[in-house]
Amino acid sequence: MESHVKWGLGFVVTGIVLEITLPFLFILDTVLILLGIALILFGGRDKKVEEVKE
Fold first, then answer.
1. pTM of the entire structure?
2. Is the dihedral of CA 31, 33, 37, 40 positive or negative?
3. Neighbours of 42 (CB within 10 A)
4. Which of 8, 15, 25, 42 is most exposed, with the fewest beta carbons within 10 Å of its own?
5. Are 12 and 37 in contact (CB under 8 A)?
6. How many angstroms separate the CA atoms of 3 and 40, rounded?
C-alpha cells in the first residue's frame, strides 16, 4: 500500500473516531475526512502524469 493511501485512511479513520467521540468538533472532523478522501483519490497523480509524458 502506498504512502498517500495509508495517510488518507488514517485521516478518514481519525475523522470518524473524532466525530463519534467529540461531535462538537464537526468542522475538524469534516476537514480530516475530506482530506483523507482527497489523498486517496488524487495521491498518485504525479506517477500517472510522468507515465503519460514518456
1. 0.80
2. positive
3. 11
4. 42
5. yes
6. 10
